[in-house]
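Fill-in record for Type IV pilus assembly PilZ.
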Amino acid sequence: MGKAANFETKHAKRVRMKPVAFKTNLRNQQRVGVSADVTIERKDGSCLTCKIANLSRTGIMISCNQALVKELVPSQKSPVPGSVIPVTAKFSVPVVPTQPVSVIAEGSIVHMRRIARDEFHIGIQFAEFEGNGYDYVDRYVSKLLSSSDTCS
């Protein structure tokens, strides 16, 4: 082994690091796998139907094909921090097994990634719920989480 090099640093200037733009960690809530339809309404009023991949109390991950992605995210690139694409998500959750309730939540597209050749996942962070929407989602997610805990 060679000798360790000795580097003098007394004449080196200090360099201040530039702050890095970063996305906040949106994974602060547990997600549950859900298979159901969701209607996404864009700001211009047009509606698209996709599938729910997973759901949490603070957001929803939807699965859709490339044609739908082009309509939702025209640039087809994951949104950069500070750039929001406002949408409204409309879906049903079975709070009572025989009686699903509708949930309408306003939010923003905050994430996008390609899963397969013609399948994409789009992450929507909820900002506001109509009526008791948050309570319905909270109860449904809690129920699914508790039932998955008992199976393991």
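KEY FINDING: The two ends are 52 Å apart (CA to CA).
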